[in-house]
Amino acid sequence: MPRPLGELEDAVMTRVWKWNRPVTVREVLEDLQQERSIAYTTVMTVLDNLHQKGWVRREAEGRAYRYEAVSTRAAYAAALMNDAWSQSDNPAAALVAFFGMMSEEQRTSLRDAVRIAQGPETPEPAPPPDTRRVTSGDTDSADTSGTDTRGTDTSSADTPGTDTRSTDTSPDTGPHTSGDTSPDTRTDTGSENPGSAQEPDGR
């Protein structure tokens, strides 16, 4: 973990984090001079030290450098808290004491952070289905379906049979040819005799 920042280093890094872009020594100097009297070489040395410690990266631009933060302010604060906690001989007691010093707003933020770190809660698995009950229900349904099908088939078979016999015994007076040719033959024979008696020759 990078070493904790000094007071002036923190002031410089605060500007780098706030602007969230590559900055020059001149830009940081002019902003710091609104609060204190400070030399250009001092700011240049601080930024060079921050580069050596791994807090910023830099890229040459002409005869100067532009500096950009490597990590966020939140990561820096987390690193400080983790370092302090790891050095305690009783981490649980240290956490209790730290929680007691927090404001209600900070405690709410901590609870939200814990929920985010833990991720969404995994729902409990559903109990397995009762296979015996399902099997019994399927068997009953199959038996009932079989009984209904047989009753329906018998009824439907009887009805068409009765209708077909009734239709076949009646004479076919329409243009269609009936399957039973007996009624048609008798009708045709009866109509041929009168036609033969009326031939032109009188025979």
Write the layout of secondary structure elements.
Layout: H1 7-19, H2 25-32, H3 40-53, E1 56-61, E2 64-69, H4 73-86, H5 91-101, H6 104-118, H7 131-169, H8 182-197
Antiparallel strand pairs: 1-2
Helix pairs in contact: 1-3, 2-3
Task: Outline the structure in words.
By secondary structure, the chain is mainly alpha-helical. It has helices at residues 7-19, 25-32, 40-53, 73-86, 91-101, 104-118, 131-169, 182-197; strands at 56-61, 64-69. The protein has a two-stranded antiparallel ribbon with strand order 1-2. The longest helix is centred in the last third of the chain and has 39 residues, at 131-169. The radius of gyration is 51 Å and the shape is elongated. The N and C termini lie far apart (137 Å). The relative contact order is 0.06. The model is unreliable at 136-142 and 151-203 (pLDDT under 50). This is BlaI/MecI/CopY family transcriptional regulator. One of its GO terms (molecular function) is DNA binding. Residues 118-203 are annotated as: Disordered.
